Amino acid sequence: MRAPITSVSGGSIRSADLGTPAIVVFLVLALGATIFLWRARYIRRRTAYVTMGVIIVGLIIFGALLYTAPA
């Protein structure tokens, strides 16, 4: 079994670099799942709107923190 590569062209891969896109992808998938469940009538309209609102606010806050943080 080989050891994992820890550096790529002079830089190193950090777990934060890999986790950032994963959080965005998870939030977008959760938003899509909420819309699907609402349209398929598994969840009520109010529950869907509240859940979608929380996810969208989470995306906005995470995006603001992601792009305003110093490199």
User: Measured on Cα atoms, how large is the radius of gyration?
Assistant: 17 Å
The tally of beta strands, per DSSP, is 2
Query: Order of strands in the sheet with the most strands?
Result: 1-2
Q: How large is the count of helical segments? A: 2
- Give the integer mean of the pLDDT values: 83
Element order, helices and strands?
Answer: EEHH
* Uncertain spans: none
Percent range for helical residues?
A: 55-70%
Compute the number of structural domains: 1
* Beta-strand content estimate: 5-15%
Summed up, what is this model?
The chain has 71 residues and is mainly α.
Please characterize this protein's 3D structure.
The protein has helices spanning 15-39, 45-68; strands at residues 7-8, 11-12. A hairpin with a 2-residue loop joins strand 1 (7-8) and strand 2 (11-12). The radius of gyration is 17 Å and the shape is flat. It is built from two helices and two strands, in the order E-E-H-H. It has 71 residues and is mainly alpha-helical. Helix 1 (15-39) runs antiparallel to helix 2. A two-stranded antiparallel ribbon has the order 1-2. The protein has one domain.
Task: List its salient traits.
single chain; 71 residues; mainly alpha; two-stranded antiparallel ribbon; 2 strands
Question: Topology, pairings included?
Answer:
Elements: E1 7-8, E2 11-12, H1 15-39, H2 45-68
Antiparallel strand pairs: 1-2
Helix pairs in contact: 1-2
